[in-house]
Amino acid sequence: MGMTIKEIAKLAGVSKSTVSRVINDAEHVSDKARKKVQQVIEETGYIPNSIAKDLKRNSTNSIGVIVPRINTSTISSAVEGISNIMYDNGYNLLLTNTRLDIKEEIKYLELLKEKRVSGILFFATELTSKHLETLNKIDLPVVVLGQDISEIVDFPCVIHDDFNSAKDIAKYLVKQGHQRIAYIGVQEYDIAVGQLRKKGYAEALTENNLEVPEEYLYKGDFSINSGYEGMKEIIESSRQLPTAVFAVTDSLALGAIKYLKERDYQVPEDISVVGIGNSDISSWITPELTTVDYDHLKAGEEASKILLKYITGDKFKGKLLMDYHIIERESVKKI
Amino acid sequence: MGMTIKEIAKLAGVSKSTVSRVINDAEHVSDKARKKVQQVIEETGYIPNSIAKDLKRNSTNSIGVIVPRINTSTISSAVEGISNIMYDNGYNLLLTNTRLDIKEEIKYLELLKEKRVSGILFFATELTSKHLETLNKIDLPVVVLGQDISEIVDFPCVIHDDFNSAKDIAKYLVKQGHQRIAYIGVQEYDIAVGQLRKKGYAEALTENNLEVPEEYLYKGDFSINSGYEGMKEIIESSRQLPTAVFAVTDSLALGAIKYLKERDYQVPEDISVVGIGNSDISSWITPELTTVDYDHLKAGEEASKILLKYITGDKFKGKLLMDYHIIERESVKKI
DNA sequence: AGAAAACTTGGGAACGTTCCCAAGAAAAAG
DNA sequence: CTTTTTCTTGGGAACGTTCCCAAGTTTTCT
Q1: Which of A72, A82, B61, B314: CA 20 to 30 A from B328?
Q2: Cβ atoms of B121 and B65 closer than 8 Å
Q3: In this structure, are residues A163 and A191 in contact, taking their beta carbons and an 8 Å threshold?
Q4: Which Pfam families does the record cross-reference, listed alphabetically (chains A, B) (predicted)?
Q5: Which of A42, A99, A105, A284 to mutate to test the interface with B (most CBs of B within 10 A)?
């Protein structure tokens, strides 16, 4: 244990330079010397110290990742994608978890700089001025995931296309013949889900000259129960029932379906329902949910590729909108 | 940028020793010097280089984590637990993902040693002799998660109590009055799920003097479809139908329920079903599934605590069996 | 006031590598 | 056989810290 290059050199009867050359299989080493060194390394179980190496080289092959949580399918899939690309390119992941505490983000940004990571993948939540200051200070390539902050700060962003996907699945409902489409959403301080998806829904309807009565609109939180309550309120307050429901997430759709089932409405025969997100549940429930699939794994991969280029000096400008696709399953009926 | 302690020292008009003392807020620094240094650090945005520090100190505050995948709820929850404990104790996570490739495990074990991590949390799959050799060679504290290898190799293991939990939920069925309990399992090369859970089931029944006819036993794979097929086979081949089904995972239970529903058997009125694992789906399906909950997050936390002690020289011997509890929901009827 | 104690400070070696440079050895060219 | 070229080798500085030690300064005590 605690072997160093120097000791290997002594044992092999060569200089540490030669050992270094063997380790990094560089040129200018005779076969004889190489063999001998390899043998000694093998025998002693020597494993080089990459801390020393990193110090000398003044660079690491580590990438910092900042997430607000790990055990969500969205984030863990993205991290899986990140690890795919990064490992293939010889980088390691230094994973930090803010546990939804914004102040920790600042701390971890600095910590990752201390560790001299080559770049950072940052799952952003909110952006304060303190963030901007820190991002500036650490002077590292950063790619932001999940939030579009490309207008506030000059870092590449990788985001899902909330607006167009919402619009498309709303258009899909219209195309299936639906004219009365209710909306179950969330508060608008959430930009992606609360604003963009709603805007997509609204635009799809107006473009098709469809009006939305006030009583078709519900805004709650992200819980399943909120979907249940929303559906209840819409059903109870509508003079004429909608033929379809546009829920802004799969959980909300699930809650809506639960309520409908309880009241003996058939889905999709009486009322069609769509969600967004293609969560695990969406394919387990009956009827299987028609929804929008975002490819989180691929988002992680794309963000990684952008970061790698950034590190080598080729900076992506603006934001990358990820692809999506509608998964047609059983919860929508053509009328 | 690229500031060093030396440059800060020059700017502050002190020696680098003094700057070092300020950074590590050590004693023996006059207020005046401290103020001045802090001011210069603030102005220049200097962030210390922890690579140099680690090299000098000959230790890092990093923990290596080796996982076979990231985006499963089991693993991501465990990693969340790990990050909780580790961050609270000042450690960072170096995350490596083998993508189910056993050879990569060896590679990552060595890589983490190169990085001079303080310890490793290893989600093991299989253990080859090459593994043992490498584990030996790297000479680091390692805690193994998810597999009981405490008899083969002298590292602490943290595992779920497959045997007792299976036995308990089988006993629960008996207690609810069930006498004819069918079994849907998996092949026995999987020790935890294939062997231990089956053993728990078998023991619960024999202890209650219940016999199991051969046609009540089915062995497939881990897929939902396998649960479906298993249920089908059991129903079709039994002279007398079972009143309950013990499925070795939630997915299998789900498949079984799917088949029963299709054939218009009521769950749990006609046949009760239990699973194991408390997967996400288990609470979404109708009827909600009675199952066993393993606390993966806590397993990660406990493993982390054991590793931290190990690092400070206090090695846990043998294996830690995690707690579990039965979640009673709707899929079992008392008879 | 002088001695002792306590605090403050700076210099320099060390951590384990890499990589430049110079020198020695071998091979090729004349 | 000498000169040039190419290959191989080792020595040592450097990367940015920490930490020991010695020296200088201030405070406390008698």
Answers
A1: A72
A2: yes
A3: no
A4: LacI (PF00356), Peripla_BP_3 (PF13377)
A5: A284
Same CATH topology for A5-48 and A60-161+297-323: the answer is: no
Of B63, B220, B59, B238, the closest CA to residue A96 belongs to: B63
Of B51, B114, B280, the CB nearest to A55: B51
pLDDT tens, residue order, chain A (335 aa): 578 999 999 999 999 999 999 999 888 899 999 999 999 999 999 999 999 999 999 999 999 999 999 999 899 999 999 999 999 999 999 999 999 999 999 999 999 999 999 999 999 888 889 999 999 999 999 999 998 888 888 999 999 999 999 999 999 999 999 999 999 999 988 888 999 999 999 999 999 999 889 999 999 999 888 999 999 999 999 999 999 999 999 999 999 999 999 899 999 999 999 999 998 778 878 899 999 999 999 999 999 999 999 999 999 999 999 999 999 999 999 98
H or E stretch covering B160? strand B157-160
DSSP A214: G
Q: Residue A276: left (phi > 0), alpha (psi -120 to 50), or beta?
A: beta
User: Tokens 């053509």 label which residue?
Assistant: A334
Write out pLDDT tens, residues B202-259.
Answer: 999 999 999 889 999 999 999 889 999 999 999 999 999 999 999 999 999 999 998 9
Q: Would you say domain A5-48 falls under CATH 1.10.260.40?
A: yes
Q: Which CATH class is domain A60-161+297-323?
A: alpha beta
pLDDT in tens, B276-307: 999 877 887 889 999 999 999 999 999 999 99
Residue at A313: amino acid letter: G
- CATH fold group of domain B61-160+297-323: Rossmann fold (3.40.50)
Best probe of the A interface among B55, B71, B82, B98, by most A CBs < 10 A, is B71
Cα B113 from Cα B94, distance rounded (Å): 11
Q: Give the closest residue to D12 (Cα–C1′).
A: A17
Q: Which residues of A touch B111 (CB under 8 A)?
A: 92
From A227's Cα to the closest Cα of chain B, the distance in A is 14
What is the distance in angstroms between the Cα of B265 and the nearest Cα belonging to chain A?
A: 17
Task: Give strand ranges (E) for chain A.
Answer: 62-67, 92-97, 119-123, 142-145, 157-160, 181-186, 217-220, 244-247, 272-274, 291-294, 319-322, 324-327
Residue A202 exposure: Cα atoms within 13 Å on the Cβ side: 10
Between the two ends of chain A, the Cα-to-Cα distance in Å is: 74
Tell which CATH classification among 3.30.70.1530, 3.40.50.2300, 3.30.930.10, 3.30.390.10 matches the domain B162-294: 3.40.50.2300
Domain limits, chain A = 5-48, 60-161+297-323, 162-294
Alpha-carbon distances, residue A281 vs A65, A288, B278, B283 (angstroms): 28, 9, 14, 10
Residue of A270, A225, A280 lying closest to A247 (CA atoms): A225
Which residues of chain B (41-100) touch nucleic strand C at CB < 7 A? 52, 55-56, 58
List protein-proximal bases of chain D (any atom < 7 A from a CB).
7-12, 14-20
Contact A111 B95 (CB under 8 A): no
The answer to whether the beta carbons of residues A209 and A240 sit under 8 Å apart is: no
Strand partners, A121: A65, A143
